[in-house]
Specification:
CATH superfamily of the domain at 199-351: NAD(P)-binding Rossmann-like Domain
CATH topology of the domain at 199-351: Rossmann fold
Largest sheet: 7 strands, mixed
Radius of gyration: 21 Å
Number of helices: 14
Distance between the termini: 48 Å
Strand content: 15-25%
Structural class: alpha/beta
Number of strands: 12
CATH architecture of the domain at 199-351: 3-Layer(aba) Sandwich
Strand order of the largest sheet: 9-8-7-6-10-11-12
């Protein structure tokens, strides 16, 4: 059984993520011009696989878990996307996540399409041995879809470099040859990339810094609130703190805290890694979960799960701008409220793309047996992300459209042009 979630989080996760994506596509269609005849390409995943994942448990019994792997679009290259292990994973969620990856990879102009995978399981209930057997069986079941030139998985919610290592080894065992670029987000000793663990959080910070610069906001002393303190939220918090911003509020599934003078992200991460709950962190005031949205800030970073900010929550938020660290945290209705209130939202497909950019570097260097050090990777990440941000911001200003629409216009044009040029066969 999965742990009970706070009711307000449960309510927001009931919003169908695939329907969110379809609404986002519908909203961008009027801006696509000559590409609009191909728009239905984005409304249908190319392929979806549902698999049974039987696992022998430590007590000798057999447990069955349901797994998924979806290719949304591969017009621009092989599918790319993470694998999440979570008790609430559904096919509709994986479809939406794969679709957002299609948009994301096109927006930052890396040669991938969109994919995603997941297993409906609570990994905290499994032993290390059970987790390894689950990973290997899931990998074996989806092997017909994955490969360095077909589909490259990566870590996502509740998965990590060790799980990627098991996936890579299982694929190698079945293929009879080691292909290190069949997955990304691996341990560095197995061909992983330096700076990969921090890449998504760093990308969130880069996009926030660019937005602050365009809006005339000094990051030094700026108040930041972050929902979610996993890999993305914790990494972003550290970069904000290093830039002189104050991380004044944090919320995760265990609680919410506030400190007007700013929290120490390193201390907070140590506390959580040691098994502590957010509300037990010393030097901060514990908040009611729902009160997190009422904290006045300059920058809000939702970095938890999708569907967290609906119209009611968006109406309460007091911030200068939002930078989406999670996939799909703002519903279309929430977007409408932010527009009416003139609160810019830097969309997920731009703000959290740092992970897939560095994954591309890892995939490319593995394929060509090159080596880049951390400094080179961070420099290249910043270059790619800043270029994408400037393109989105320029279109946003030129056409007087919101940042999400601008991002989707640019990405959809690239995807649909590739689809048009490749044609249909037979």
């Amino acid at each position: 059984m999965s742990p009970a979630l706070p009711s307000y989080i449960e309510a927001k996760q009931n919003i169908a993520p695939w329907e969110m994506f379809l609404e986002q596509v519908a909203r961008v269609e009027p801006y696509l011009g000559v590409w609009s005849p191909w728009i239905d390409t984005l409304r249908r995943p190319r392929r979806a696989l549902i698999v049974d994942v039987p696992v022998q448990m430590d007590d000798g019994g057999i447990a069955h878990f349901e797994g998924y792997r979806v290719h949304h679009n591969t017009s621009r290259g092989p599918a790319k996307g993470g694998v999440r292990f979570h008790p609430d994973v559904t096919l509709a969620e994986v479809m939406a996540l794969s679709a957002w990856m299609t948009i994301k990879t096109a927006l930052v102009n890396v040669p991938f399409g969109g994919g995603k995978g997941g297993v409906r399981v609570d990994p905290s209930k499994l032993s290390i041995g059970e987790l390894e057997r689950l990973t290997r069986r899931y990998t074996a079941e989806i092997t017909p879809l994955i490969g360095p030139l077909q589909d490259i998985p990566a870590p996502d919610v509740n998965t990590n470099p060790q799980i990627m290592a098991w996936m890579m080894d299982t694929y190698a065992s079945r293929q009879g040859a080691l292909r290190t670029n069949v997955v990304t987000g691996k341990p560095i000793s197995l061909g992983g990339s330096p700076a990969r663990a921090d890449a998504t959080g760093r990308g969130v910070f880069i996009c926030a810094a660019e937005t602050a610069d365009h809006m005339g906001l000094d990051l030094k002393g700026a108040r930041v609130a972050i929902q979610g303190f996993g890999n993305v939220g914790a990494g972003a918090a550290r970069f904000f703190s290093e830039a002189g911003a104050r991380v004044v509020a944090v919320q995760d599934i265990t609680g919410a805290i506030y400190a007007s003078g700013g929290l120490d992200p390193a201390r907070l991460q140590e506390h959580i890694r040691a098994g502590g709950k957010l509300g037990e962190f010393t030097g901060a005031e514990a908040l009611e979960m729902d009160a997190f949205w009422d904290v006045e800030t300059d920058i809000l970073v939702p970095a938890a799960l999708e569907g967290q900010i609906d119209a009611k929550v968006a109406a309460r938020i007091k911030t200068k701008f939002v930078v989406e660290g999670a996939n799909g945290p703002t519903t279309p209705a929430g977007d409408d409220v932010f527009k009416r209130r003139n609160i810019p939202v830097v969309p997920d497909v731009l703000a959290n793309s740092g992970g897939v950019i560095v994954s591309y570097f890892e995939w490319a260097t593995d394929a060509s047996s090159l080596m880049w050090d951390e400094g080179q990777i961070v420099h290249r990440l910043r270059h790619v992300l800043e270029a994408a941000f400037q393109s989105v911001w320029s279109l946003h200003k030129h056409q007087n459209i919101d940042l999400r629409t601008a991002a989707y216009v640019l990405a959809c044009q690239r995807i649909l042009e590739a689809r048009r040029l490749r044609g249909l066969f037979p």
